[in-house]
């Protein structure tokens, strides 16, 4: 008797197209270094402190709502 566990691995197919289009030029999504089943955000070069990305697509929430 064997027990098989199904592990779901996040792929680029799971990422909405608008998210992929909105990534800065030097940012990529690859398997996470922390959790290989998830995607992580990787920079292809250093990102300067204070660099802003946008526009934000989504709903802003207050800290008490998250």
Task: Walk me through the structure.
This protein is mainly beta and 66 residues long. The chain has a domain at 12-43. It is built from one helix and two strands. Strands 1-2 form a two-stranded antiparallel sheet. The longest helix is centred in the first third of the chain and has 6 residues, at 17-22. It comes from Circaetus pectoralis.
Secondary-structure content class: mainly beta
Distance between the termini: 42 Å
The averaged pLDDT comes out at: 85
The low-confidence parts are none
- Shape summary: extended
Helix content: under 10%
User: What's the total helix number?
Assistant: 1
Element pattern in H and E = HEE
Describe the strand arrangement of the main beta sheet, using strand numbers.
Answer: 1-2
| CA-based gyration radius | 16 Å
For the report, how would you describe the main beta sheet? Answer: 2 strands, antiparallel
Number of strands: 2
User: How large is the share of residues in beta strands?
Assistant: 15-25%
Short description:
With 66 residues, this protein is mainly beta. 9% of the residues lie in helices and 15% in strands.
Give a quick set of tags describing it:
15% strand; 1 helix; 2 strands; mainly beta; 66 residues; SET_dom_sf
